[in-house]
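The protein record passed on below.

***
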Amino acid sequence: MRKNLLIPLALSCLPVSGFGQPVDDLASVTVLPGWREADGTHVAALQIDLAEGWKTYWRAPGDGGIPPAFAISGTGIVGMQPHFPVPEVYETFGIRSIGYENSVTFPLRLQVPDDGQPVGISGQIQIGVCDEICIPVTLDFAAMLPPVGAADPAILAALRDRPLTRSEAQVGTVTCSVTPINDGLQLSTTITMDATATEEFVVIEAGDPQIWVSEPHVSREGRQLTAVVDMVHVSGQPFALDRAALRFTVLGDGKAVDIRGCTSN
């Protein structure tokens, strides 16, 4: 197993104290209470504000980051779907990371009781905040969500700042081939689509958090965008790959395309 490939993550995310700035000054969270939709879904958001120049991470943060983790509770809340605005790609000390600088708003769609009453929520969001070092931070929050509420421009902007769908980006075929390697699988994916940026980045998620995915080697020839990654199960044991569960995100120039699944070559 490629333990050496996991070392940058372990080193960059160690808790650090005594570096000249209190952890409490690095990040804060504000609940944007949002509004209730006709189907009973409540749209709210967590607004994360960071110290100047500090960053936090996207859903798939890259080898040097910590993905956000949400823990929310409240009377009658039976479901939650977070939304992630389009992130930026950064490189520090040769390690690529994907996330947001200075601030980010994460919209939340919450399934709440359809009784026209306010709903109290509380919880935590765990994030990594990074400059030259990366520090895990847990932020607590609590708020009352109104039974009606008004559309919040900050939440609406974050919802609009989303990846294009496969249809919107006019993506054609998406094919994958899998080759066994010593400790896992090598996945080669070819996506038929027009270039979205001068420099394109591809993020591949396996659909299983126990499967580690390497940084991709990306190349393009005409409308054919190819990304090749190694995949290794954290147990070091063989595993089956579900092509339908694969998720591909093409990033570049502040834009993104979200693609689900692939077919065999």
